Amino acid sequence: MQVEPALSSEDFAKYPFLKKASKQIEELQFTIGTxxxxxxxxxxxxxxxxxxxxxxxxxxxxxxxxxEISSFAAALILVIAxxxxxxKKRYALAVAxxxxxxxxxxxxxxxxxxxxxxxxxxxxxxxxxxxxxGFNFYLKNAAHMHGSEWKLVNQIMDKGMVYLNKDKVVRLLxxxxxxxxxxxLDVSEIKNLPEEITLIAEALLRLAQEIMGQEIEEMPxxxxxxxxxxxxxxxxxxxxxxxxxxxxxxxxxxxxxxxIGMTPEGLNDMFKTFSDYNERLTRYQIEHIAGERGSGTKYxxxxxxxxxxxxxxxxRDELCHRIYxxxxxxxxxxxxxxxxx
Length: 341
Hints:
The structure is a single chain. The protein is mainly alpha-helical. It has 3 domains: 9-102 and 178-209, no CATH class; 105-172, no CATH class; 216-340, Orthogonal Bundle (DNA Cyclobutane Dipyrimidine Photolyase, subunit A, domain 3). It has helices spanning 9-14, 19-27, 32-35, 39-55, 65-82, 85-103, 108-117, 135-142, 166-184, 195-213, 230-240, 247-259, 264-271, 279-289, 304-309, 326-340, and strands at residues 122-124, 131-134, 156-158, 161-164. A 4-stranded antiparallel β-sheet has the order 1-2-4-3. Helix 6 runs antiparallel to helix 9. The protein is globular, with a radius of gyration of 22 Å.
């Protein structure tokens, strides 16, 4: 039996979301108050979040392991300081995707050690497979995957263990990492932040708004349902038939329709058919997304990568493979339709 390697300080710098890495951060006595004064940490933390917003990764690690591991904690603070759910989701996804690429280059023993940090039941495999994992861990994370290759009936399974190769185990671990980082970011606000951190958070928020809104400019004013992307058509159909929509499904549909010109009143009428309809709550949520309440920010629907992660992406067509946002799809499809006419 292969001996599982112990995780080192180098591993903790590489995978700072691990439980033992958190203990190392505590030992470094890193605090919010010292964040802006520790330039290497502060700069790397900014880079982490900026890269996440722009490229959905966390950038190149610095050689100083102390700065690298501390910058992960600092980046969490910066993300929370933005008070923006899109940035939180984006950063968690970026950490997970970066981790996915790193894990593909790790040994099976190292992957097992990291999987155990998430309390996985994982062992060395057989029958031509690298690993075997408890089916409950498989089901939990494979629920987000599409394609017949992820269906449990298409896996080799014996005595409650699913046999998988390295690439699939690493993909499942990506989901675990994303969920863990999202939970660490599930904080409404951090009080008494230094002014420098608040200013950086505001700059990050502006950067995110540019990315979220870059496809909104010059959006066609006439609502054309025939130009809806497949995911929106599926959500719209579910809504019309009063089928249950997940929280992100409702947010995606509502924010998409708001941004192509549907009125909050029209949206409220659409949701009236839902069995759990609450007029006061529904109206408030729609008006909040439309920017008519709260901060006045008009929310943009999530981009395709986020919808894929949350299993909202459905019935992809040829155009889907060339775009990255539902509003971009709508704009291009409507232009194509106008040329045909």
